[in-house]
Amino acid sequence: MERVVVSMQDPDRGVKMRSQRLLVTVIPHMVTGADLVEWLVQKFCVTEEEVLHLGTLLLRHGYLYPLRSPCCLELRPDDTPYRFQTPYFWVSTLRPATELDYAIYLAKKSFRKQGALLEHEKEHYGQLQRKVSHMWDLVVTQAREQLRASKHRRKGDRLVITWQEQTYWLVNRPPPGVPSVLEQGPEQGSHSAKRELRTKDSGFYRQEIECIRKALSRARVKSSICLEAYLKFSDQYKPHDPIMSGCLPSNPWITDDDAYWIMNAPSVAMPTRLRVERWAFSFWELLGDSMGRTHFLEFLGKEFSAENLCFWEACEELRHGAQAQLSHRVDAVYQQFLAPGAARWVNVDSRTMELTLGGLRQPHRYVLDLAQMHIYMLMKKDSYPRFLKSDLYRGLLADALVPPETRRRVFPFMWKPRHSNPSPALLPTSVELASGKSAIIPDDDGGSQEV
Amino acid sequence: MATDGLHENETLASLRSEAESLKGKLDEERAKLHDVELHQVAERVEALGQFVMKTRRTLKGHGNKVLCMDWCKDKRRIVSSSQDGKVIVWDSFSTNKEHAVTMPCTWVMACAYAPSGCAIACGGLDNKCSVYPLTFDKNENMAAKKKSVAMHTNYLSACSFTNSDMQGCDKKAMVWDMRSGQCVQAFETHESDINSVRYYPSGDAFASGSDDATCRLYDLRADREVAIYSKESIIFGASSVDFSLSGRLLFAGYNDYTINVWDVLKGSRVSILFGHENRVSTLRVSPDGTAFCSGSWDHTLRVWA
Fold first, then answer.
1. How many CA atoms, within 13 angstroms, populate the side-chain half-sphere of residue B264?
2. How close does chain A come to B45, measured CA to CA in Å?
3. Class of domain A99-172
4. Chain B positions in Cβ-Cβ contact with residue A212 (cut-off 8 Å)
5. How far B137 CA lies from chain A's nearest CA (Å)?
6. How far, in Å, are A222, B104, B157, B166 from residue B110 at the CA level?
C-alpha cells in the first residue's frame, strides 16, 4: 500500500494536487476524489469499481483522509477533497499506539472544546484515567503543552495536524462496530517467533545440503512437455467444468434446481453421457466413479479377472481404514487373494509376491502397496483398454443420457436467454471487451442482450 | 552448541557456502530444461470471455471470523470453522445449518469433511485434531463422541482427510512423501509467506498464494515455477487458492476482501469479485466444480457460481 501511496504523491507523475480553500483557510496538497480515481484507473488499467475499492481500503488503513466528513471512509469519485497522511503516522512506522499517547490525545481533544469527545471516546477516556492514573499529571501537562504550541501555528497547519491525528486514531482505536484493519491472524505472532527459534546451526545446513543433493539428482522433464500437458488436460476437461462450460440441465446454484445432482448421483439408473465419457479419460477416472467401477467389475467378470479389482479395493480399504482393524484386514486379504490356493488368487509376479509375503510378517498400512501397484498397472495396461473397446462400454455410451436444458427461472427484471443455462464463460464477441464496458451478446433469434 | 556435529575442516561458514553453491547449481539444472514459457505455449488457446459469477448463497451464522471450510462429497454440504470456536455443518444449497459443535478453543483454524460424509475433523490453537462423527440424533452430544486424533507441537493450521501432501512453510513450498516423512521437492521463489497451496487437478503441479500478493504455479515434473499470477493493482496478500475442475481457472481470495479469477494458462486476470466485507480467509471449489465457496473475516460464507 505504501508503494502505491508514495507513487501517488510523486510531484511529476503523481496525482494532481492543489491548494484548496476550505471555508476561509487555504489547505495545501489536496487532491480530489475524482483525480485520485482517474490516476489510479490509468496507472493500473483497471475498472473504476476496483479503484474505488482500493481507495476505500487506503482510507480505512489511514493513508488518506477526507477533509470534510472524517468518518466517511469511502472513496468518492467526485470533488470531495482528500489529503495524504504523513508517513510519521503510517500504520507500519508507529506501532503499537500506546495508551499514554491515546490518553494525551483524548485529553487534548476534551480541553480544546468541551464535549468534543464522542461516546466511545468518553468511555475510553474514563477507563484511561483509571489505568494511567499514576501518570495522569504527565498526560495533562503534555496535552496542555501541545495545545499551547499549536496556538502559535497557522490555522491551516493546525487543521492539518488535527486531521492527521484524528485519522491515526481512527485506525488505531476504531469506534465500536467498525472492524479494526490492524487485526492479524494468530500466525503473525507465532511465525516470527518460530523463525527466531530456528537457529541455523550445522544440523540445519546439513539437512539443506542433503535435500538439495537429492533434488539435483532428480529426473526432470522438459518444460515444453509439461506445459503442453496442461493445455491438453484443460481442453479435455473443459466440457466437464461447469464453471467453464455450464452444465446440463442447469447449474443448481444458479437455477435452484438440483436436477443436475440427482442425475449424477453415485447410483443412478442411467448415467449421463459426460459421465460415461469421462471414464475414458484415464483409468483413475474410471475407478474414481463407483458406477464406473461397478461396470468395470462386470466386464472383468466376463474375462474371469474380477479378483484383480477386488484385490485392489481391499488394499484401498487397508490403506484408509481404521488402525484397529489393520491386522484383521491384512489377514483377510492374504487368505482371499495371496495365499497359495486362495479362492480369488491374484496373479502377482514372483518377486513382488516374495517381498509382499515378507512384509506381511510385520503388517502396516502400506504393506500391500507393491502388490496393489502391480495389479493396478496390470488392469490399466491390459483390461482397461479392452474395456473401452468392449460392447459393454460402447453400449453404455450409446444409451447414456443427455439431459435437456431447462429453462432458467424467470425473474421479472432478468432477461430470459435462449440457452437457459448460460455458460459463465461467455464467448468473446467481436465487440471490444474493454474494461468496465458491458458485453453485447448476440441472441440466437437475432436480437441482442446486454450483460 | 555451535561446534556440535562439525567435522574436521568444517565450519559453519563453509557449510553455509556449500549449501549456497548447491542451491545455485540446482537453479542452473532446473533452468536447463526450461525451453518455453507457459504463456507462449498458451498463445494458441482460445481466450476466455467475460465472466459473470455472482454470490448465489450467503451463509450467515458464525459469530466471528470464518477461518476455514471444506466441502462434503455430496457437493452441497459444507463444514466451516470460526474464531468463535464454533464448527458448523451447513447444507449450503438450502442454507440450513445441520450441526454445530463448540470447540474448547477459539481460533478453530482448520476443518475438513470426511470422504464418507459421516464425520468432520477440526483443530486450532488447542494443538489437537479432533474428529466428530456427525449425528442427527438430538439426544446425542456430539462433543462427547469426539476423538482426538493427533497432537501437534504448535497450532493446527490445516487438516484434511486425504493425504495433505504439501505445506507452505514461510516462503518455501515443500512436497512431502507421507510415508517416509521426507521432503521430496522444495521451491523458494515467493517473496513472502505462503498462505495456501493447492494441487492442479491432474496432480502434476500446484499453485500457491502468498503475502507478496502473487500466486504462482509450480510444475512437479519440470521441477520449477512456471507461472506468476500478479497485477500491479493487487497489493494485498492472497490467503487461499483453488482450481476449477478443468484447471483452467484459478480462484484466489485476498486480504483486500476480493476474489480474483485467473486464467491459469494465459496468466491474465479474468475477473474480480467483490462482495465480502473483510478479508477472504478460505476458498474451495465444490467437488463437482459447479461452484466455489469463500469464507471471510466478515463472519459469512458465500457460494459463487
1. 32
2. 8
3. mainly alpha
4. 19, 22-23, 25-26
5. 24
6. 37, 14, 6, 15
Element (H, E) at B21: helix B12-32
Helix A48-60 / helix A33-44 crossing angle, nearest 10 deg? 120
Instruction: Measure the CA dihedral B23/B25/B28/B30, to 10°.
Output: -70
> Helix (H) and strand (E) counts for chain A?
22, 6
CA distances from B42 to A221, B39, B268 (A): 18, 5, 11
The C-alpha cell 510415508 sits at: B179
Binary contact (A190, B154; C-beta < 8 A): yes
Asked if A426 and A451 count as a contact pair (C-beta separation under 8 A), the reply is: yes
* Buried residues in B117-149 as b, exposed as e (16+ CB within 10 A): eebbbbbbbbebbbbbebeeeeeeebeeebeee
Which CATH entry fits the domain spanning A1-89: 1.20.1740.10, 3.40.50.150, 1.10.10.10, 3.90.1150.10?
1.10.10.10
| A116-173 per-position pLDDT tens digit | 777 888 888 888 888 878 888 888 888 888 888 888 888 778 888 888 888 888 888 8
Share of chain B above pLDDT 70, in %: 74
Chain region(s) in chain A for CATH 1.10.167.10 = 265-399
Instruction: State pLDDT tens for residues B14-52.
Output: 888 888 888 888 888 888 888 888 888 888 888 888 888
Rounded distance between C-alpha atoms, residue A55 and residue A223, angstroms: 40
Neighbours of A271 (CB within 10 A): 24
Residues of B within 8 A of A430 (CB-CB) are none
Q: How many CB atoms lie within 10 A of CB A367?
A: 22
Query: Distance between CA B112 and CA A80 in Å, rounded?
Result: 47
Task: Indicate the class that CATH gives domain A265-399.
Answer: mainly alpha
Cis peptide, bond prior to residue A96, ω within 30 of zero? yes
DSSP state at residue A408: P
More confident residue, A31 or B249: B249
Every domain of chain A with CATH number 1.10.10.10 lies at 1-89
Which string of b and e fits A117-151 if b means at least 16 CB within 10 Å? beeebeebbeebeeebeeeeeebeebbeebeeeee
Q: Do B49 and A50 touch (CB under 8 A)?
A: no
| CB atoms B291 and A241 under 8 Å | no
Three cell numbers, residue A242? 461447469
Complex confidence, ipTM? 0.81
Start-end of CATH 1.10.1240.60 domains in chain A? 99-172
| Mutual angle of helices A136-151 and A99-112, in 10-degree steps | 50
Q: Residues of B with CB below 8 A from A201's CB?
A: 1-2, 4-5, 12
pLDDT-based confidence at residue B9 (cuts at 50, 70, 90) = low
Q: How far is B184 from chain A (nearest CA, A)?
A: 8
Helices A391-399 + A290-302 axis angle, to 10: 140
* Minimum CA–CA partner of A60 in chain B: B256
